[in-house]
Amino acid sequence: MIKLESVHIEEVRGIRKLDVEFGEATFAVSGPNGSGKSGVIDAIEFGLTGQIGRLMGRGTKGLTIGEHGPHVDKVKFPDAAFVQLKIFIPSLGKSATITRNLSQPRKPKIEPATAEVLKVLAEIEDHPEITLSRREILRFILVEPAKRSEEIQTILKLEQIGQTRSVLNTAQNKLQAQLKTADALVTTRRETLLRHLQIGALKADDVLAAVNTRRKTLGLGAIAKLESDTKLDAELADAGKAPEFNKQSILRDLKAVTAAVAGLPVAAKASVTAILGVIAKIEGDPALLESLNRRALVEKGLDLVDGPECPLCDHPWADEAHLREHLNAKLAKSAEAGKLQEALLKAAGELGREATRLNAHLASMQKIAAAEADQPAVTAIDAWVKNLEKLKAQLGSFDGIMGLKARLNADWASTPATFGKRLETLTKAVEAKPDQSAAADARTFLTTAQLRLDDLREARRQQTAAAAASKTAKATYDTYCKVMETELNALYEDVQEDFSTFYKTINEGDEVTFTAKLTPSAGKLDFDVNFYERGLFPPAAFHSEGHQDGMGVCLYLALMKRLFGDQFTLALLDDVVMSVDTDHRKQFCKLLKTAFPNTQFIITTHDRAWAQQMKSAGLVTKRTSLAFHSWSVDTGPLVESNDEIWDDIAAALAKGKAEDAAGSLRRHLEYVSRQLADELGASVVFKADGNYELGELLPAVVGRLRELCGKAAAAAQSWGNAAAQKSAVELKDRLSAATGVSNVEQWAINQAVHYNEWANFGKKDFEPVVAAFKELINCFRCAECQSWLYVTPHGIPESMRCTCSAVTMNLNAKPK
Amino acid sequence: MPTLQQTIAQKFLDELKAGKVLDDAKVEAMRKLLQSDAKPKADDFVKVFTPDGGDVA
Description:
Strand content of chain B: under 5%
Structural class of chain B: mainly alpha
Strand content of chain A: 5-15%
Shape of chain B: flat
Structural class of chain A: alpha+beta
Largest sheet of chain A: 6 strands, mixed
Number of helices of chain B: 3
Shape of chain A: elongated
Helix content of chain A: 55-70%
Distance between the termini of chain A: 63 Å
Radius of gyration of chain B: 13 Å
Number of strands of chain B: 0
Oligomer: heterodimer
Distance between the termini of chain B: 48 Å
Strand order of the largest sheet of chain A: 7-11-12-3-13-14
Radius of gyration of chain A: 42 Å
Helix content of chain B: 55-70%
Number of helices of chain A: 26
């Protein structure tokens, strides 16, 4: 997608001000812990995406870009904190500049802001996975299989895929619940019609037989066929009007109510028992209750999320995706509680449907009571219906259900004590009415039958629509799952092959027959690797931590290759091979160079040896590497090869901070001495830990240059080259003078001038020391190009020179 | 370069169309929901799945 040309960072994370020229090449940033290396990665990531991964995700509760993105001294002045990135876009052959301020992370200034440039940058924002840190790669190596696919999806920021599936599943469940309700309504209305018609099953012949008998009584023609629009009361003068009282039908309705109420203790017994069982389990385990309570809150919160602010406490997150990730992680932790909750809600749903059936009976009884002007019965039924509706509402939530324990133990329906009496009274009142004439009975029978048939037809229409919607929802959900799994499985297959190849490259000669297997199944992702042909095992079973680190990076690189192909042009690797040993790191350099020749890697490491190894392997050069030697809250990272070190030292002395100035001078001299010892081939007593002190390095380096100058002078003299001889002697004299002033050769014998005492010097005493060492170090540079002098070839030097060849001293005397 | 999410979403919509799970208008409605900046809610999908009119004899 893009490559980095340069970055300018001000007041971001631990960095005060820093410019880095990447030159579109792989670049290494090294330095000890806390020197600011990751700050460079944070700044680049922020510049490109407006996010800082280290401040988001798991374990970062309470951290925000707004409060913790700017340097600690600029938190109240976020406008001062910004990153300016210059990038190159290979597909467009153009450069662009992004300036992004911590106070407005979502509003970068882009130049040029053309549509094509904006499109590329929008793609980058969609791919924050270009940044990889060690804590992230470990997540998908050392995690249990059930979590691995989630971890890989998390690291690749694929949570939206899971979210979409989850929302489709919720929609499917809602429509399924609606279908069950529609089914129940059809059942209730069918029963009501059958009861009225006094037939056992809704067969067309039986319906017509019952209807036509009454039609004949009224002298109406028989209905020959029952069709979808047949009117049972056709040609009746009262057709379409509200039906009059039909005594027999009403008595049957009241009988049905009596049977329903009598059957309440048995109805829904299984559901009630199931609910009470879960409640008992929860009450017996307080941790489970807490988990469920949190779950209910988190689920509600997820429903309400509509932006980066927490819907409960308004706490701002970097973006909505990270807030959702956080909430989903909480839900995942309470899986057992989730299963219980599911069982609870299922049983509650069944009990709710029983309440709906009971209410349907009560509704018909209420109409009868109203027709009989039995107001107390109407009021009593109304109260009971409302009570049952309240029960249904409570059954819809976890908290509601938990509050129903007492009711469920006593009488879930809460049948009013006087209900039986009222029902009996109403029944007797209807029975006492005079029997209707055959004609009146027939008329009211037909109008009531038509009304109930209309109700049933409407219920069936709703049921058909609900069934269609539910079927569509399921088919859509299944399609999404199928596509998602197909894509992810293809991803895993491709990845597994590349992963094995990359890992074998890093472990060349060590694990030549290495293979790996990524096996997705039922939401899990098993990851097994071959251990010396003894079989496939999880990575942590037998492989060392170093090997696992290597696996992590290889898996990441394989995923990136699969996802981006030849557009994988940039990756930020933040100290990702900490536990990998020297040999394997060399191979890692080879992997990056050979398998990803067109990818620019920005690599940080705390290991100086590996930083050097990257140069030796040709992965980076001196120009494309940066070394920090320390960090302070006032200065930010201090760069080892920074020539402004002399200005920094002067500034520290001007502020009266001689100790800081002494520390900076010492560190700079240690850095320079190491460089020069390598460049000139100085002899230093070997130390296995590689921790050479200034006193071990600089005198050796000074001695070496003196020796080389002597050799060059002797060689020039043997060749009769007076000018070359003069140059060599002049350099030697200059070195001697500078050495004398600096007292560097007195360190071993004169404690007072030893560099350990510098921190005790005052400003006036230390300034001459600084000047002396500045002059001493300049003896090792070319006055023209400022590069360090070096010998070549390194093993048996034949000359000493500089980069521009202004200094070229032959070391080989004329053969005699 | 599309993200994996975008790739999956497009293939999903293509499958819905090819399998006639949804008609063209509803596939378009799904596409708008999936591409919207606002995250789709379950009720948004319920509206898409519910038949128009809903009246079947």
